[in-house]
């Protein structure tokens, strides 16, 4: 039979009773008791910048849907005007996506800059592709001229516009950026040129190039961070 091994303790003095009955000073339980508690409710901590960009993107998509429905009629009225409108909306949309995905903040000045560039780009692209189709009947030669002359010229116009808008020294900006961007552009734009001259109706060239430019702008923005 086993023996009782209960340990008998002597009576506790007053100091021991205070230590056992009082709050556990310095303990986690005591600290947690006085720590302010923050309750996060879904939807209350959304970044206002993200909400603003989301509203901009929604309005841009609505505008693109509307212009898509009206484009054939607008083109019959003014080929250059309709091309400028489509390019403007899509260039602004590309910048909106870039701000939403990469920068994660709203930059109204950059949006306005790309809307203005869209007008220039639409008019230039329409004039250049229409002139090229008339002057150069051979499609392979037309594609070559587009990439040898049109692509570098379009990039030069773009960098000149950006330099003027941002107040940069165009010569310095040109040397830092032009040839890098030109080299990168040849990854995709020769294929775009081939598709537009072989497969597309002339009315669809500017919208097609502008749509490709949306994805190209976002991809470059993601790559460069």
From TrEMBL:
Location in or out of the cell: Membrane
Ranges annotated as spanning the membrane: 51-71, 77-98, 110-128, 148-165, 177-198, 204-223
Main location: membrane
Basic and acidic residues: bias regions: 1-20
Annotated keywords: Membrane, Transmembrane, Transmembrane helix
PANTHER family: PEROXISOMAL MEMBRANE PROTEIN 2 (PTHR11266:SF80), PEROXISOMAL MEMBRANE PROTEIN 2, PXMP2 MPV17 (PTHR11266)
The protein, known as: Protein sym1
Originating species: Magnusiomyces paraingens
Lineage per the UniProt record: Eukaryota, Fungi, Dikarya, Ascomycota, Saccharomycotina
């Amino acid at each position: 039979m086993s023996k009782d091994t209960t340990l008998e303790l002597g009576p506790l003095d007053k100091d021991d009773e205070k230590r056992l009955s009082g709050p556990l000073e310095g303990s986690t339980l005591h600290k947690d008791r006085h720590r302010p508690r923050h309750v996060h409710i879904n939807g209350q901590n959304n970044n206002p910048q993200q909400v603003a960009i989301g509203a901009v993107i929604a309005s841009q998509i609505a505008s693109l849907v509307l212009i898509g429905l009206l484009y054939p009629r607008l083109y019959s009225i003014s080929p250059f005007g309709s091309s400028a409108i489509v390019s403007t909306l899509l260039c602004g949309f590309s910048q909106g996506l870039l701000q939403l995905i990469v920068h994660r903040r709203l930059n109204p000045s950059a949006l306005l800059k790309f809307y203005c560039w869209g007008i220039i780009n639409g008019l230039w692209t329409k004039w250049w592709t229409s002139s090229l189709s008339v002057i150069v009947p051979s499609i392979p030669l037309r594609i070559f001229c587009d990439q040898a002359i049109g692509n570098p010229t379009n990039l030069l116009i773009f960098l000149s516009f950006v330099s003027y808008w941002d107040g940069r020294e165009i010569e310095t900006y040109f040397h830092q950026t032009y040839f890098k961007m030109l080299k990168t552009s040849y990854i995709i734009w020769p294929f775009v040129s081939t598709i537009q001259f072989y497969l597309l109706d002339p009315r669809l060239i500017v919208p097609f190039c502008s749509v490709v430019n949306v994805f190209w702008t976002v991809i470059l923005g993601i790559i460069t961070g």
